[in-house]
């Protein structure tokens, strides 16, 4: 069976993982979730690979290409992107 090719969602996920602000979102989300202080998990901790790994785990996929072929993963990714968008909007309003 040939490997699954990614499409629009896979490209969007790759761009999201490259987004420095998305990685900051992951830092702050993890701090909040686990009750960590900024010294325990500083901003800038998540790199592009960490973001990719986190996204794949959250969407229960091995590769971002699966986002275009797995309805559950696609819906999960869209929810993540929406929550990130809301968080990003609050960051702008606080700046």
Content of β-strand: under 5%
Q: SSE string, helix = H, strand = E?
A: HHHH
Number of strands: 0
- Envelope shape: globular
> What is the helix fraction of residues, given as a range?
55-70%
Task: List descriptors.
single chain, 95 residues, mainly alpha, 4 helices
Explain the overall architecture.
This protein has helices spanning 8-18, 20-34, 48-59, 71-94. It is an all-alpha fold and 95 residues long.
In short:
The longest helix has 24 residues, at 71-94. Helices cover 65% and strands 0% of the residues.
SSE blueprint:
Blueprint: H1 8-18, H2 20-34, H3 48-59, H4 71-94
Helix pairs in contact: 1-3
């Amino acid at each position: 069976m040939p490997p699954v090719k990614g499409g629009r969602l896979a490209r969007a996920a790759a761009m999201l993982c490259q987004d420095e602000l998305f990685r900051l979102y992951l830092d702050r989300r993890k701090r909040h979730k686990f009750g960590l202080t900024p010294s325990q998990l500083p901003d800038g901790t998540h790199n592009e690979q960490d973001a990719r790994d986190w996204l794949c785990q959250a969407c229960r996929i091995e590769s971002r290409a699966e986002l275009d072929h797995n309805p559950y993963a696609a819906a999960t990714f869209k929810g993540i992107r929406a929550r990130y968008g809301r968080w990003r909007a609050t960051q702008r309003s606080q700046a």
